[in-house]
């Protein structure tokens, strides 16, 4: 909980009172306000909570079996997710290897999508579909996927990476931590998608009428701006990539037991137990093998993912704008035949891309959405909560009028909540990298009538599995 929230401690204590019997252990920590070098937001919240997790578990000889899960408070994870993560984690450890894996589920907006404005729903539909596109059922050593809001990392990997950054450059907390772990392991991070979807809520203010309609769109734009502000991570990745060879030279001169072998990414912490320091030093020494190279196929895939996330939306927008302006100019200014041919060709390519993307959503995403709804409904029935949550299932019909309108609005929603916020972000970065962190408005849920009302916003939560 945050110190800035006057009700934070009360809410935490109420949650523990309500649900302590459902967990092996429940604790809370209060994140102090105004710590030096911290920017308000999810990353600094998670960083503080993770430090408390380290304090609790690092003195435990079995500390390497602790898994840390980061999630937004409106996220609904199935029990299958944790079972699958633990199974993969134990398999890695039984092979005599330290688990340097980031586990991540796909996301789906299947809770209140039927209650929000259509453009808001379409924007989140595209967001979920884009994240799903880089998933694979059988990940390899070259797999690169970017987590969205929810992921799990082993505690040794958290220590090796040096925890979560707290500055304004880490506003894209999920991507930033993935990049930090990737470069801390020198590109040897294993990224394993988990086939158990994380259910999310669409942004909504809950206000009625035309004012509510406008407020919902404004809230979604603010969320889009915060997401696109994370394009700072491209610069972060480039800087870390450029330092690969420099870090390797420093590591070549170090030995596993020396104080310098912990490297810049780990850092020697006098508060850490000796067995933890030795473990981290041995792991980082092993990660700096003779095959470490700056130019690898996996690094190329990584930067292609960053291009898709931070460059492609604005490039597409600017190309469309420039093409429209060029076509509207009088003849003497548009007499270049070769340029006209190129513009015609690219317009056909864009039309084909839109057609293929629509096919992807109609055929694959709709089936995925139905499977997610079915899995969550079954689990809620087993838990005896289905009746209470019956109105929190956003069903879709593949070729209904509403779904077809959703597909036709892809370009509009993508521009309003993707390209335009990205343009604002990259122009703003000429002056500042700081953004006022606004928590996205999500639907309110009464957990226990008359006892506790908790807004399901995008604040963070950390769970540990031992």
UniProtKB/TrEMBL annotation:
Bias (Low complexity): 257-268
TM ranges: 300-328, 348-368, 407-431
Residues in Glycosyltransferase 2-like domain copies: 68-360
Keyword tRNA-binding: no
Alphabetized UniProt keyword annotations: Membrane, Transmembrane, Transmembrane helix
UniProt-annotated stretches for the region Disordered: 253-272
Pfam family, one: Glyco_trans_2_3
Protein name: Glycosyltransferase 2-like domain-containing protein
Organism annotation: Cladophialophora yegresii CBS 114405
Taxonomic lineage of the native organism: Eukaryota, Fungi, Dikarya, Ascomycota, Pezizomycotina
């Amino acid at each position: 909980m945050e110190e800035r929230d006057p009700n934070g401690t009360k809410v935490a204590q109420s949650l523990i009172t309500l649900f302590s019997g459902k967990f092996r252990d429940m604790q809370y920590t209060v994140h102090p306000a105004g710590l030096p070098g911290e920017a308000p937001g999810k990353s600094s919240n998670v960083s503080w909570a993770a430090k408390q997790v380290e304090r609790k578990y690092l003195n435990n000889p079995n500390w390497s079996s602790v898994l840390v899960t980061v999630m937004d408070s409106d996220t609904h994870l199935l029990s299958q997710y944790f079972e699958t993560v633990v199974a993969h984690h134990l398999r890695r450890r039984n092979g005599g290897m330290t688990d340097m894996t980031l586990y991540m589920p796909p996301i789906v907006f299947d809770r209140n999508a039927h209650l929000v404005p259509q453009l808001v729903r379409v924007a989140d539909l595209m967001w979920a579909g884009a994240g799903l596109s880089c998933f694979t059922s059988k990940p390899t050593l070259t797999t690169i996927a970017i987590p969205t809001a929810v992921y799990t990392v082993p505690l040794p990997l958290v220590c090796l990476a040096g925890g979560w950054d707290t500055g304004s450059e880490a506003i894209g907390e999920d991507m930033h931590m993935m990049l930090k772990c990737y470069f801390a392991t020198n590109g040897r991070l294993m990224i394993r998608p988990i086939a158990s979807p994380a259910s999310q809520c669409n942004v909504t203010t809950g206000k009625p009428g035309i004012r509510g309609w406008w407020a919902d769109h404004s809230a979604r734009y603010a969320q889009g701006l915060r997401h696109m502000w994370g394009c700072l991570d491209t610069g972060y990745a480039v800087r870390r990539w450029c330092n690969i060879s420099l870090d390797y030279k420093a590591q070549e001169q170090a030995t596993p037991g020396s104080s310098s072998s912990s490297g810049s990414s780990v850092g020697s912490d006098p508060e850490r137990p000796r067995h933890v320091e030795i473990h981290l030093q041995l792991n980082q020494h092993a990660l700096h093998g003779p095959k470490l190279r700056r130019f690898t196929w996996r690094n190329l895939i990584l930067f292609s993912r960053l291009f898709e996330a931070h460059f492609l939306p604005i490039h597409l927008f600017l190309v469309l704008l420039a093409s429209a302006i060029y076509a509207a100019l009088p003849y003497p200014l548009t007499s270049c035949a070769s340029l006209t041919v190129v513009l015609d060709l690219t317009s056909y390519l864009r039309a084909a891309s839109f057609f293929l993307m629509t096919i992807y959503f109609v055929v694959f995403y709709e089936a995925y959405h139905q499977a997610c709804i079915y899995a969550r409904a079954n689990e809620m029935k087993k838990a005896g909560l289905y009746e209470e949550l019956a109105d929190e299932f956003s069903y879709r019909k593949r070729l209904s009028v509403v779904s077809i309108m959703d597909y036709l609005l892809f370009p509009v929603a993508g521009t309003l909540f993707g390209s335009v916020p990205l343009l604002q972000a990259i122009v703003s970065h000429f002056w500042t990298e700081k953004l006022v962190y606004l928590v996205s408005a999500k639907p309110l849920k009464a957990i226990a009538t008359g006892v506790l009302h908790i807004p399901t916003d995008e604040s963070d939560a950390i769970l540990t599995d031992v």
